[in-house]
From TrEMBL:
PANTHER family: ACETYLTRANSFERASE, RIBOSOMAL-PROTEIN-SERINE ACETYLTRANSFERASE
Single Gene Ontology MF annotation: protein-N-terminal-alanine acetyltransferase activity
Pfam families with a match to the protein in the record: Acetyltransf_3
Domain N-acetyltransferase positions: 11-176, 200-366
Protein name listed in UniProt: RimJ/RimL family protein N-acetyltransferase
InterPro entries tied to this protein: Acyl_CoA_acyltransferase, GNAT_dom, Ribosomal_N-acetyltransferase
Record organism: Catenuloplanes atrovinosus
Domain of life according to the entry: Bacteria
A cellular component term, taken from the record's GO annotations: cytoplasm
Length: 377
């Protein structure tokens, strides 16, 4: 690669300079930067920044890649860095990596720089660009999708985590000839970030929900109807909360919290699992804390989620299952507009190596329209 300054997408990509030192120190001392770049020196000093500018970045250029400062075209001030790393010449492949300074975040800088550098790399002979990020780094995954990088999967234990362990990374890639983006998503964001009918509100499951979710999913009757029927531990719950948005962006599942709109308190959870994209079928499941049962919240939550799924996604059919003994859950589904379709013997694994039966319910869009058009009795 040459060291050409790239002016595109409203950003300037230029080689790093010694005058960037103070801004590099400030940015690389930021807790969020250090969270997702765990091998950065701590504390990050002026000498670390000078080494990176004069030696580390230079090594990337010698290896066929490069490191550019992301600069504001109006002021030329450093807004972050972006580079082509781990070049594999025989594959015409490189890995895109970036960070954005705290003072430049939430302005589309990373997306713009990634689009600009991708075009520059393809024009100089690269055929495939990869972008790897932690499952917890939702902002970076959004950048990848917005810049036209398609999600390819999770690489287990790919990178050191900075504390002696290994961490998984989610892999995105863009080929020369792929559209610039954004990549179409199977499960879009909720409009305004939530769904509500004035009584219940559905919002995405997020970090910070660990205590609530642990309490909910360790209720004995919830454990008994879970697959597998095993109470999750706190580490599992923490990972689920931390990575829930990554699953949403991947289009695999949408995990939501059922909130009492009047009080703002979490009362249960509801999930949508996109099992069959080729047929447009997804599954839902839900659970409520005991003190919030009997108030009609699950029915409202199911209807809200179904309305969003049918209106905003390619989902054409929703399915749900209950145990034959769970009359309450069956009533929830029937009130929401689901119809019973079958009885599956020994379908699900249960505790102690047993198998249990499953009653299948399903809904299509016309069922929801018909149900919501009738007054509740």
């Amino acid at each position: 690669m040459d060291r050409t300054t790239v002016e595109d997408q409203g950003v300037r990509l230029r080689p790093l300079r010694r005058s960037d030192t103070a801004d590099v120190v400030a940015a690389c001392s930021d807790p969020l930067t250090q969270r997702f770049l765990p091998l950065l020196p701590r504390p990050y000093t002026e000498s670390d920044a000078i080494w990176w500018i004069e030696e580390g970045a230079e090594a990337e250029w010698r290896q066929g890649g490069g490191v550019w400062a992301i600069a504001d075209p109006a002021t030329d001030r450093l807004a972050g860095t972006i580079g082509l790393h781990r070049v594999v010449r025989e594959r015409a492949q490189a890995e895109v990596g970036y960070w954005v300074s705290p003072w430049a975040r939430n302005r589309g800088v990373a997306r713009a720089a990634t689009v600009a550098l991708s075009a520059h790399a393809f024009a100089h002979g690269f055929a495939r660009l990869e972008l790897l990020t932690e499952l917890e780094n939702i902002a970076s995954q959004r950048v990848a999708l917005a810049a036209g990088f398609q999600r390819e999967g999770v690489r287990r234990g790919l990178a050191p985590d900075g504390v002696g362990g290994r961490t998984d990374l989610v892999a995105f890639a863009r080929l020369d000839g792929d559209p610039a983006g954004p990549v179409a998503r199977w499960l879009p964001d909720l409009p305004g970030g939530e769904l509500s009918d004035g009584v219940v509100t559905l919002r995405p499951l997020l970090p910070g929900d660990e205590d609530f979710l642990y309490t909910l999913l360790n209720q004995p009757d919830v454990v008994a109807t879970s697959v597998p029927a095993v109470a999750p531990d706190r580490r599992e719950i923490a990972l689920r909360c931390a990575r829930s948005q990554a699953h949403w962006l991947a289009g695999d599942r949408a995990d939501l919290v059922i909130v009492d709109t009047a009080t703002g308190r979490p009362t249960g959870d509801i999930g949508l699992y996109y099992q069959e994209r080729n047929t447009g079928q997804a599954m839902i499941g839900y659970a409520m804390l005991p003190e919030w049962r009997g108030r009609g919240f699950p029915t409202r939550a199911v209807q809200l989620l179904a309305l969003w799924a049918f209106a905003e996604t390619s989902i054409a059919r929703l399915v749900a299952g209950t145990s034959p003994q769970n009359a309450g859950s069956q009533r929830v589904l029937e009130k929401a507009g689901f119809q019973r379709e079958g009885y599956h013997r020994s379908r699900l694994p249960a505790a102690n190596g047993r198998r249990i039966d499953d009653v299948l319910f399903a809904m299509v869009a016309s069922d929801l329209i018909s149900r919501t058009a009738r007054p509740e009795r």
